[in-house]
Design goal:
The chain is mainly α and about 400 residues long. It contains 13 helices and no strands.
Length: about 400
C-alpha cells in the first residue's frame, strides 16, 4: 500500500498540458471524421456519408444541450432572461470550444500566473483560482465522456465494419480509427482523474501505475468489445441492432432503478439516463458508486458470454466469415484483449484503485476544511455523475 500526499485542489502545469492535449485530440477526431466522410462523398457512397455524419451531429446536439443547461444552472439564469448569446454559441455547436477556451485561460492562470497573495484585482485567492480551473476542466471531462460513447465509439465500430466488409479501403479510414481509439482512451482516463480531483472527500487517482493500469483495463476491454460488435454486424446487421437495443434497455432500466439525481429538471434527467444507457453498452460505469464489485462482475460476465456467442456464431452459423482474410487477426485480437483487459481489471481493483493505492493524509486539516467548505457551497455536479 502506498501513501501519497498531494494537494487535491492544485491545478498543475501537467494538468494544463493534458488539457491542451485533450483539445488537440478532440479537434483531430473531428477532422478525421470529416476527412473520411468527404472521401465517401467523392466515391458517391452517400449512405456512408450520412451514417458517418449522423453519429457526430446527434452526439454534438446532446453535448451542447447538457453544456447549455449546466451554464444556466451555474449562472442561476431563469429561462425568461436574456441568455441569447450563450444559446447561439451552443446552437452553432461551439459550446464545448468556448468551454475549452475558458478552461485553458483559467488553467494557465492557475498553473503559471498565480502567487501566494492571489489576484488582488478580483480578490481571488489561490484556492479560488485553482478551484475555478478544476471545475471548468471537470465539466469538459463529463461532456467528453458523453461525446465519446455517443459518437466516437459508434463511429469506430462503423469504420471497422466498413473496413472488414469492403475490400477497398482508404488511409482516411485508418486515420479515423486511430484518432477514435486515442479519443476514447484519453476521455476515459481523463474523466477518472477529473472525478477524483474535483471531489475533496475522495482519494485522488494519482501515480503512473494506477493510471496506466486503468488505461490498459479500459483500452483492452473496449477493444475486444468494439471488435465483437463489429463482427456481430458482419454476421447480421439485424442481430447487431437487437443486441445493442437489448443492452441499452438493460442499462437504461438499471439507471432508472438507481433513481439518479444528476439533473434538476425531469426532462434533462431522462436524457441523462438515456445517455448513460448508451454508455453502459460499451463500458462499465457505476452511476451510484456503490456495490461496484457485484455490478462489475455481472457486467463483464455478460460481455464474455456475448463475445463467446459471437465467436461461435462465426464458426458454426456463418462459416463464410471465417474464410475472410481478416477473421484470424480479429478473432485472436478479441480473445487476447479480452483476457488482458480482465487481468488488468483484477489487478487495478486489487492493488491500484484509489481506495487501496492512495490514502488521504488524515492529519491534513486543510483538506478536511476545504471539503466541509465545499459542502456548504453546494454539492459538486460530478458527485451525481457516473462513478467508478
Amino acid at each position: 500500500m502506498t501513501i501519497m500526499k498531494i494537494n487535491p485542489r492544485k491545478f498543475t502545469k501537467w494538468n494544463f498540458t493534458m488539457s491542451v492535449l485533450g483539445i488537440v485530440i478532440y479537434i483531430a477526431d473531428i477532422a478525421a471524421d470529416l476527412w473520411v466522410a468527404s472521401n465517401y462523398f467523392c466515391e458517391r457512397q452517400y449512405y456512408l456519408v450520412i451514417l458517418t455524419l449522423a453519429f457526430r451531429l446527434l452526439a454534438s446536439v446532446i453535448v451542447q444541450t447538457f453544456s447549455y443547461a449546466w451554464l444556466k444552472e451555474d449562472c442561476n439564469i431563469p429561462d425568461s432572461e436574456n441568455f441569447n448569446w450563450i444559446f447561439l454559441l451552443h446552437f452553432l455547436h461551439g459550446g464545448i470550444f468556448t468551454r475549452y477556451w475558458f478552461a485553458l485561460k483559467d488553467g494557465y492562470q492557475a498553473a503559471f500566473k498565480h502567487n501566494s497573495s492571489g489576484n488582488k484585482l478580483t480578490e481571488s485567492t489561490p484556492d479560488d483560482i485553482h478551484k475555478c480551473a478544476i471545475d471548468a476542466v471537470t465539466d469538459i471531462s463529463m461532456l467528453r465522456v458523453f461525446k465519446t460513447f455517443l459518437e466516437t465509439t459508434p463511429q469506430l465500430i462503423l469504420q471497422i465494419y466498413i473496413l472488414m466488409e469492403h475490400d477497398k479501403v482508404a488511409f482516411s479510414q485508418y486515420a479515423s480509427i486511430i484518432t477514435s481509439f486515442c479519443s476514447i482512451s484519453w476521455s476515459t482516463l481523463d474523466y477518472q482523474i477529473s472525478l477524483r480531483k474535483s471531489l475533496l472527500d475522495k482519494n485522488q487517482f494519482a501515480g503512473v501505475r494506477p493510471r496506466l493500469m486503468y488505461l490498459l483495463y479500459k483500452l483492452f476491454t473496449l477493444t475486444s468489445w468494439i471488435l465483437s460488435i463489429a463482427l456481430t454486424t458482419i454476421l447480421s446487421i439485424v442481430s447487431s441492432l437487437i443486441l445493442l437495443i437489448s443492452l441499452w434497455t438493460l442499462g437504461f432500466s438499471w439507471t432508472l432503478k438507481q433513481h439518479t439525481t444528476f439533473c434538476k429538471s425531469k426532462r434533462m434527467e431522462f436524457l441523462y439516463r438515456t445517455v448513460v444507457g448508451v454508455i453502459l453498452i460499451f463500458t462499465f460505469f457505476n452511476v451510484k458508486g456503490e456495490k461496484t464489485k457485484m455490478y462489475i462482475v455481472s457486467y463483464y460476465t455478460t460481455h464474455v458470454l456475448v463475445t463467446l456467442a459471437v465467436m461461435c456464431g462465426c464458426l458454426f452459423w456463418k462459416t463464410s466469415v471465417t474464410e475472410q482474410f481478416y477473421f484470424p487477426f480479429v478473432s485472436i485480437t478479441i480473445v487476447l484483449t479480452l483476457g488482458a483487459g480482465i487481468i488488468c481489471l483484477i489487478i487495478y481493483y486489487s492493488f491500484f484503485h484509489p481506495t487501496i493505492y492512495f490514502k488521504q493524509d488524515s492529519a491534513s486539516d486543510t483538506v478536511d476544511g476545504l471539503a466541509r467548505e465545499r459542502e456548504k457551497e453546494g454539492i459538486s455536479r460530478i458527485r451525481n455523475f457516473i462513478m467508478q
